[in-house]
Write a structure and sequence with these properties.
By secondary structure, this protein is of the alpha/beta class. It is 35% helix and 22% strand. The strands form 3 sheets. The protein has a 7-stranded parallel β-sheet with strand order 5-6-7-8-9-10-11. The longest helix is centred in the N-terminal third of the chain and has 19 residues. The radius of gyration is 20 Å and the shape is globular. The relative contact order is 0.16. The structure holds 2-succinylbenzoate and magnesium ion. The site of 2-succinylbenzoate has 11 residues, from loops.
Length: 367
């Protein structure tokens, strides 16, 4: 396949509710979409980087720059590109996994649409629908409970609360008292240190499925130490940057569960590699999210249909994030599940008129 052009398009979308985490608050999104034009047709990808380097080092202007000046030129210069070759084609560029993942997804989408194969089939999906959880940002307690009540009423199969020092035991206790049977987990986005092990152990009585990323991303030994001091299983998110690091984290005892996010891993193909490592080591995985539009969501739902994804993911319905999605076939919750698209490529149709109406800039790169 020959990539003839790469389009870098920024779109603006309001979130239906603010999303506050220990690394910042999102109220509206500034999203970088990637479209590739090839001799075999077009494909779409979504870059999950946020405006600030808070979740990880990447941020949307930086990802845009790296795509424009380093990644897209390599793909455009290659005489023949297949998604499976991208890791090699882009190999000279270190880091920047979210930028790489966006480009990989666009190339995968184009290739699979041309071949008439769905992304789920390409990745190894075995389910027709996936169990969905919801990740709830931090709010004042009364508001938090209202949001959780609403999501439980919607049918979400698991609730995740964001925590940080000073906002942990109290909200967890309140949600647990109100919803004794809901599957509940928490995500600290690296806001604690190994010295907070007692504070984290104070969450043990609330029957949480897991604690996600309590410590900084490079503190694998610290996570292993905390794991010895608490009963709740530790799940890693930010720390899991490759299949190799996943092997290391599991071997060190730093995690019992893994959150798989393609953007953090440089693409969906590496995400499948992490899934393989975890299945081989008996580690359950679930699909993380980064507030994606229907483009990234379609890919996440396909990934979450692989057999090792045995826990509900942060793959919520389109309307949990946006009043109107960028695809004509938004994701709708059905009995706590989303249906895996079966059409070629991503299996969703980008709503070009709507995308045009929310576009803030477009840049087209050619040879
Ligand atoms: O840490 O899992 C995270 C959103 C943005 C950045 C990081 C994270 C999240 C979420 C929300 O928790 C997941 C989603 O609903 O997309
Ligand atoms: Mg997380």
């Amino acid at each position: 396949m020959k990539v003839e052009a790469v389009e870098l398009r920024r779109v603006a979308l309001e979130l239906v509710a603010p999303f506050r985490t220990s690394f910042g608050t999102q109220t509206a999104r500034d999203i970088l979409l990637v479209r590739v034009v090839t001799n075999r047709g077009e494909g779409w990808g979504e870059c999950v980087a946020f405006p600030d380097p808070g979740y990880s080092e990447e941020y949307v202007d930086g990802a845009h720059h790296v795509l424009r000046d380093f990644l897209a030129p390599r793909v455009i210069a290659a005489s023949d590109v297949r998604a499976a070759d991208l890791a090699r084609v882009l190999g000279g560029v270190t880091g920047n996994p979210m930028a790489k993942a966006a480009l990989e997804l666009a190339v995968l989408d184009a290739e699979l649409r041309a071949d008439g194969v769905s992304l789920g089939t390409r990745l190894g999906a075995e389910r027709r629908a996936v169990d969905c959880g919801v990740s709830v940002g931090m709010f004042p307690l009364a508001e938090l409970l209202d949001h959780v009540d609403g999501y439980v009423a919607d049918g979400y199969r698991r609730v995740k609360l964001k925590i940080e020092p000073g906002f942990d035991v109290e909200p967890v206790r309140a949600v647990r008292e109100r919803h004794p049977d809901v599957r509940l987990q928490v995500d600290a986005n690296a806001a604690y240190t190994v010295a907070d092990a007692d504070r984290l152990a104070a969450l043990d009585p609330f029957d949480l499925l897991l604690i996600e990323q309590p410590l900084p991303s490079d503190d694998l030994l610290g996570h292993a130490e905390v794991a010895r001091q608490i009963r709740t299983p530790i799940c890693l998110d930010e720390s899991i940057t490759s299949a190799r690091v996943t092997e290391l984290a599991i071997t060190l005892g730093a995690c019992a569960i893994v959150n798989i996010k393609a953007g953090r891993l440089g693409g969906y193909l590496e995400a499948v590699g992490v899934h393989e490592v975890c299945v081989a080591r008996g580690i359950p995985v679930w699909c993380g999210g980064m507030l994606e539009t229907g483009i990234g969501r379609a890919a996440n739902v396909a990934l979450a249909a692989l057999p090792g994804f045995t826990l509900p993911g942060d793959t919520s319905a389109s309307d949990r994030y946006y009043a109107r999605d960028v695809v004509s076939d938004p994701f709708v919750l059905d009995d706590g599940r989303l249906t895996v698209p079966t059409g070629p490529g991503l299996g969703v149709t980008v709503d070009l008129d709507f995308v045009e109406s929310i576009t803030t800039s477009v840049e087209i790169l050619r040879p």
